[in-house]
Design brief:
2 copies of one chain form a homodimer. With 453 residues, the first copy, chain A, is of the alpha+beta class. Chain A contains 18 helices and 16 strands. In chain A, strands 1-5-6-11-10-9-7-8 form an 8-stranded mixed beta sheet. A 5-stranded mixed beta sheet of chain A has the order 13-12-14-15-16. Chains A and B meet through α1, β1, β2, β3 and α4 of A and α1, β1, β2, β3 and α4 of B.
C-alpha cells in the first residue's frame, strides 16, 4: 500500500516547520506585546453554530463530521432514497470543522461573557478547513492568525492594529502598503449621489481605474445602471489623488450632506493622524477602492499589500458592530486583523528573508567513534544541554563519511570529535563546519565556547 | 439561539492557554535541545491510512468526514436501505481525523523517505480526535506531544529519551518515577517457563502484587491456565526486589536459557547504567509489570508516574521495530516517548507549580484620562513595545473605578497614570499594583524602569 494524504492538505517537513514557526512566533510576539491574550477553540463546532454564517456557498464548503454510532437510525426509506445529500447530511452529521476563527470567537465570547473582562483582546492561531477546490496556494487546511478586540468602539484600537501590522512586517523585513478605508465613507458616497444600493458596484468599478482608465470606469458605472448625474458627482472621488489629508478634504466636500459619510471621514482622519504621529515604518494610505468584506464591516477596513512581490493581500481586517448578535449578544462592537500565514510564507521565501535561526537544527553534533568515546561525549552533551545548548550525538560508530554527511544534511555549525587520542587526554576536537577550522580543547573550555557566545 | 460546543471538546480561556503554553513550550524546548525536529501532518488523513491500525474498537472511534458534493451517488437502493451504518460510512467518507500522531508519522516517514536524513528525530505536538465516550479527564479532542527517532537501533536513544523525560519533569518541578521494562525480558520469561503465549496474562497478574498479594497473583496465574511448575519457576520474578542491578542479576538467572531474554537484560543494563551515570534528578527503576503497548513495542518500554499526585501515567513510550512496515517500508527501527499534556496540566494545577510568567498578561496598563493624555501615552506605549515590553492603554476615558477593575482583572503588575498635571509637566505616575507605591518620573526614566529590569 502506497500512502498518500487527502488532496488540498500538506505535511510540513522540519525545514518548512522552522520557517512557519518563525512566522507564527513573530506574529504571536507582536500580539502579546500589544496585550492580546491567547485563546483556542475546538476544531469541531456544532453545525448549528456554523451553518448560515458564511452564505450558501460557505455551507457547502464546510467539512461535516459523521455522527458516531448508528447515524442512520430514525430515517425513513423515503428520506434515504431521496438521495438528497445536502438534506441528509444534516441528519448524518451534527458537527463540522471550523471554517474560520471569527464565528467560533463570537460563540466563545457569548458563552464565556461572564468570565471575560471587556474590552476583551484575544488572539488565536489555529487551522481552519474549507472543502474548496484545491489549487496553487489554496489549501483545504490552513492556519489563520487573528487578533480582535471586542467590547469597545474606541478608535485607539484601529491605530493599535495598524501599529501591529507595521511592526509584524518590519520584523519580517517585508515592505508593505497598509491600506485604510471606511465603510461609512463608502455608504456616504453611494447615499449622497442617491445610489445607496449600488455601493458594491461603485466600489468595484472605481477599483479598476488603473486597469481600464477613467472612461472605462464611467462606462462600467453606466452599465450598472447609474444615472449620468450620479456619475458626474462621482468624478472627484474616482480621480481622487494627493496626500491622505488632501483626499479626506475632497471626500468631505462630496459628502457634505451625509452625516454618516462625514463620520467616516472623521474616523479616518483620527486613525491616520494617530498612526502617522507614532511613526510607522511602512506607508499608510487611504484607499477608497478597498471593499473587503463590505457586508460585514461597519467602520474601518484594513488591507496589506506586499510591495516587492506580486501576491494578493497578506493581511486585512476591519471593524464590525454586531459580531455576537447572531448568538444572542447584540451591541458588542469589535475590530480585528488577520494575517495570512501561507502567503507570508511565500513572500518570505521569494525574498529570501528567513533569518539563520529559522533553519532549526542543533548547534553541535558529536561524532561517535566507539563505545568508550561515545560515553565520554554523553557527559559533555548533558552539560551543554543543561546550559540550554541544543546538541546531539551520532547514534553508532558508523563510518566517518556517513556521520559527516548526517552533519551536513542537518546544516550543523559545529562538529565535536572525541577519538581514542582525545579520550586518553580528556579533550575534544571542535570543528567549525563553515570555516573547516579545528581546535582541540579541554571539557571546560569546550562548554564555555558555546555558553559564552 | 444559545450556543454550545460538541461534548468532549473544550474552549481554552487566556488563563488556561497561558498554562498550556507553558507546558508545550517546556516540552518543545527539551525536544529541540536534544535535536528533535518539528514536523506537522494534516488533521485529516485518508481513512485507508487510519483504518485497521488501532484495532476494531479504534476503527469505531475514528471521526469520519463526509465526502464533499454528492456523497450518495452510485449507491444502490439496497445498499441504502440496508442501513449498515459502518459499511456505508466507508462509501460516504474517504477521510478521517487523526487518531494519534504515530500512524501519521509512519505515513510521513514512508512518503518523505527520499528527503529525510536517517536517523530521523522528529517531534510533533498536535491535537488528535477520538469518538470516545467523554468523561472526567477524557476528551474527544486532545493534544499529544511525541518525540521519536526512526532509522537506528542504537540504545543511546533510549538513554537520551530517559534524560528528556527527566529534564521535562525537573523543569516542571514535578517529582516522578521513570519506569523501564523490556519486551524481550517479558518474552524471555514466558518462553523460559514454556508459556510464550501467556505473556500478557503473566504481566497483568504480576502487576497486581501490591493489591492482591503473592497468593492472589499465584491464584490468578493458575486461573489463567499456567501449570504449577511454571508458576513455581516464576516465583523469583514475582518476588523481585532490590536495586535495578540486583533485579537484573536475578532475572538473568531465570532467563539463562533464553537468548532473547538475556538480550533484554543486557539492553536494560546498558540503558540503566548509561542514564544513571549521567545523573538523573528522578528515580529510574526497572519494573517488570510494565506492559504498556505490549503488542506494539519490541524492546524498551517506558512509563512515568507522578509521585505526589494520584493520577495515571503522565508519559510513556518504547521501542518498536516495524512501525513503517504497514506502509511498505520494513526494517525501520524506532523509539519514542509521548507526554500527556492534559494530565500534566492537572498535576501542575494540583501542585500549584505554574510559574508567575505562565499567567500571561501585559506588564503595564496606561489609564486613559482624556484624548490629549491618551495621545501622550500612545507615544510612551510605542517606545515600551519597541523595547519588547508588553503594554496596553485603556481605550476610553472611562471612570477610574472601571479602568482599575480592568487592571485588576488582568493582574497587571504596573499601572501608568498621565492626568492633566502629568501631561503639563511631561511626566508619568507609575503605580506598583502589588505594593500600592506610586512614583512620578519623566519619560526616559519611565521607559528605562521597564527595559533595565
Amino acid at each position: 500500500m502506497k500512502p498518500s494524504i487527502p488532496k488540498g492538505t500538506r505535511d510540513f517537513t522540519p525545514v518548512e516547520m522552522a520557517r512557519r514557526n518563525y512566522i507564527f512566533d513573530t506574529i504571536r510576539g507582536v500580539f502579546r506585546l500589544f496585550g492580546y491574550s491567547h485563546i483556542e477553540t475546538p476544531s469541531m463546532e456544532n453545525l448549528s453554530t456554523l451553518m448560515g454564517k458564511y452564505g450558501e456557498e460557505g455551507d457547502k464548503l464546510l467539512f461535516k463530521i459523521q455522527n458516531s454510532g448508528d447515524y442512520m437510525s430514525g430515517l425513513t426509506d423515503e428520506e434515504l432514497l431521496s438521495r438528497n445529500s445536502l438534506k441528509l447530511a444534516s441528519k448524518f452529521c451534527e458537527k463540522g470543522l471550523r471554517y474560520d476563527l471569527t464565528v467560533p470567537f463570537a460563540r466563545f465570547v457569548v458563552m464565556h461573557r461572564e468570565e471575560l473582562q471587556f474590552p476583551f483582546k484575544r488572539f488565536q492561531i489555529q487551522p481552519v478547513w474549507r472543502a474548496d477546490r484545491p489549487q496553487k496556494g489554496r489549501y483545504r487546511e490552513f492556519y489563520q492568525c487573528d487578533a480582535d478586540v471586542v467590547g469597545s468602539d474606541s478608535l485607539l484600537y484601529e491605530i493599535e492594529l495598524i501599529q501591529m501590522i507595521d511592526m509584524v512586517f518590519s520584523k519580517f523585513g517585508v515592505r508593505v502598503a497598509i491600506k485604510l478605508n471606511n465603510r461609512k465613507i463608502l455608504a456616504g458616497i453611494a447615499e449622497s449621489i442617491g445610489q445607496a444600493d449600488k455601493i458594491v458596484d461603485i466600489t468595484v468599478a472605481i477599483d479598476k481605474l488603473d486597469k481600464i482608465g477613467l472612461d472605462g470606469v464611467n462606462a462600467e458605472l453606466a452599465d450598472k445602471g447609474l444615472p449620468q448625474d450620479a456619475i458626474n458627482k462621482l468624478q472627484p472621488i474616482i480621480k481622487l489623488t494627493g496626500s491622505n489629508s488632501q483626499k479626506l478634504d475632497t471626500i468631505a466636500t462630496v459628502l457634505a450632506g451625509s452625516e454618516n459619510g462625514l463620520k467616516g471621514v472623521e474616523e479616518c482622519r483620527f486613525i491616520l493622524d494617530g498612526a502617522t504621529k507614532l511613526g510607522l515604518n511602512n506607508q499608510l494610505e487611504l484607499d477608497l477602492t478597498l471593499a473587503r468584506g463590505l457586508n460585514y464591516y461597519t467602520g474601518a477596513i484594513f488591507e496589506v499589500k506586499a510591495l516587492d512581490v506580486e501576491i494578493g493581500s497578506i493581511s486585512g481586517g476591519g471593524r464590525y458592530d454586531n459580531l455576537t448578535g447572531i448568538f444572542g449578544l447584540p451591541g458588542v462592537s469589535g475590530v480585528g486583523i488577520s494575517f495570512g500565514a501561507d502567503r507570508i510564507y511565500d513572500v518570505l521565501t521569494q525574498l529570501d528573508l528567513y533569518p539563520k535561526e529559522a533553519q532549526g537544527g542543533v548547534k553541535v553534533l558529536f561524532l561517535n567513534l566507539g563505545e568508550q568515546e561515545a560515553a565520554f561525549c554523553m557527559g559533555l552533551l548533558a552539560q551543554l544541554r543543561a546550559h540550554g545548548i541544543s546538541a546531539e550525538i551520532y547514534p553508532d560508530a558508523a563510518k566517518m563519511k556517513k556521520q559527516m554527511s548526517y552533519a551536513n544534511a542537518g546544516a550543523v555549525p559545529y562538529v565535536a570529535i572525541v577519538g581514542s587520542d582525545e579520550l586518553a587526554q580528556g579533550v575534544v576536537t571542535l570543528k567549525d563546519m563553515q570555516t573547516g577550522e579545528q581546535r582541540t580543547m579541554g571539557s571546560d573550555p569546550f562548554v564555555s565556547f558555546f555558553t559564552e557566545k
